[in-house]
């Protein structure tokens, strides 16, 4: 299973590389990786398991974060009820087909399992996206996401392109964002 020891941290050049497209059918180790990425997120959101293995809670984990430079990421945005997540998918070769002009940022800023320090500041992203991805069997999916799930997916896709969340923070004034940016509590 993936633990915090498996996850590479900023400074590792793999996090700055553009990850490679996957081809179907996926290889066995790629299917296993998809399972392991999602399992980590599930474990990290389970209070007991997280405590036992000292896992930081996460809502997304991309393959490059475990040193596999391929275009795969798991996303698990929990809902109000434990077994009804808002968005739970392993995304293979995800692409943003279109995006809103409207920007949104989390009022508290963002964090990352590969970044062990707090980097304060707004991370402006598109408030709404139309996302395409492939599942493990190569089936194509399209979904429209907005606000928090949209932000999480953009953070994860950034990982596939060698981008970290703080790259988007205004260096001089971290808590400023382009005019009209929606701040999400
Ligand atoms: Zn991250």
In short:
With 185 residues, this protein is of the alpha+beta class. Helix content is 21%, strand content 24%.
Walkthrough of the structure:
By secondary structure, this protein is α+β, with helices and mostly antiparallel strands. The protein has a single domain (13-184), classed as Peptide Deformylase (Alpha-Beta Complex), CATH 3.90.45. Helices cover 21% and strands 24% of the residues. The chain has 3 helices and 8 strands. The protein has helices at residues 28-44, 47-53, 147-160, and strands at 60-62, 72-77, 87-99, 103-106, 125-126, 128-134, 140-146, 182-184. Strands 1-2-3-6-7 form a 5-stranded antiparallel beta sheet. Strand 6 and strand 7 (140-146) form a beta hairpin. The chain is globular, with a radius of gyration of 16 Å. It starts with 27 loop residues before the first helix and ends with a strand. The relative contact order is 0.19. It binds zinc ion. The site of zinc ion has 5 residues, from helix 3. Zinc ion (ZN) is lined by residues 112-114, 155, 159.
